[in-house]
């Protein structure tokens, strides 16, 4: 059996460990051949590929980024995913002599994996995203690393904030789901956590900040990039589009900080953590999760379990139907938000 691997979407710490896990299992244990495509679908169509064997994945688990590169290049040349698009992928896969794909990506990528499998082009998904917003798995690799970096940022902002009696507002990633803000905020003891799922009013936020001041402390507010104030229809965006044509998010903190300062009279500073939370070495947790994901995906290919994704269920990595994983984002449920909201301020 010959398997093609590619990464799609934003990078996520642990992707290298996932590739290594899959290669060691597929090549060394099952006797398969593996080929990696550079920069996602770009490399697949451009013939930019590398053989993946034991030597190719030596020592890569602790490395940040991903050796194959990743991109948001469209898999469907005409962009519609119709018969012609699918035939182009089928033809190209036949030229490479590959029997199936391992696709490392988030919700968008797993949607593609499902479309391909439904069209008779076998694919298995390996879930990644720092946002942790993918269904069918308890956690995605990369999330733990992003949370650790964001929690450390809170710790650091706190000491400078306390010294100046300021309100510090930290913006983290999270387009549609506030998992990073929720977990980092809990870890760092943030007094307010603002997430895309639950808009809040500037009056309420200011009230929380003032109550912290009245207790003699300085506030640390964490906000996910996709957060909206009550009454605001649109998320705050930056200029330009991403590779998939979506508006780039970011900058909500620049809107919030002056509003908080104006309403509370407390000097307020804004920080955008940005891509720092996606860069660098993965945590041990993410390396282990990613390696196990890769192993499970290789085993699934051997067993012919195409159309599935290697999801973490409790302590086990299990193959779940792609249909269970895609279509609906895994957002923060109301009870998880209420649990922290009751202690804001
Ligand atoms: N519904 C879709 N149909 C076809 N291609 C898609 C679809 N959703 C995503 N893609 C492709 O998969 C890529 C990865 O999806 P994206 O949402 O950017 O990242 P992720 O896979 O991490 O969620 C997109 O840039 C796009 O090329
Ligand atoms: O700067 P980029 O690469 O366009 O990505 C920004 C987006 O990617 C993410 O980090 C991860 O998103 P995906 O997992 O869907 O790729 C989002 O939190 C963020 O909005
Ligand atoms: Mg996505």
Automatic annotation (TrEMBL):
What residues bind substrate, as annotated?
Answer: 129-131, 166, 173-175, 225, 269, 275-278
* Gene3D superfamilies noted in UniProt: 3.40.50.450, Phosphofructokinase domain
Q: Which reaction does it catalyse?
A: beta-D-fructose 6-phosphate + ATP = beta-D-fructose 1,6-bisphosphate + ADP + H(+)
Instruction: Indicate the segments forming the Phosphofructokinase domain, all copies.
Output: 2-300
A Pfam family for this UniProt protein? PFK
Q: In which pathway does it act?
A: Carbohydrate degradation; glycolysis; D-glyceraldehyde 3-phosphate and glycerone phosphate from D-glucose: step 3/4
Please state what class of enzyme this protein is.
transferase
Q: Mind telling me which InterPro entries this protein's record contains?
A: ATP_PFK, ATP_PFK_prok-type, Phosphofructokinase_CS, Phosphofructokinase_dom, Phosphofructokinase_III, PKF_sf
List cofactor names only.
Mg(2+)
Q: Where in the cell is it found?
A: Cytoplasm
- Site positions for Important for substrate specificity: 108
Q: What does this protein do?
A: Catalyzes the phosphorylation of D-fructose 6-phosphate to fructose 1,6-bisphosphate by ATP, the first committing step of glycolysis.
Instruction: State the family named in the UniProt similarity comment for this chain.
Output: Belongs to the phosphofructokinase type A (PFKA) family. Mixed-substrate PFK group III subfamily.
Protein name, as recorded = ATP-dependent 6-phosphofructokinase
Encoding gene per record: pfkA
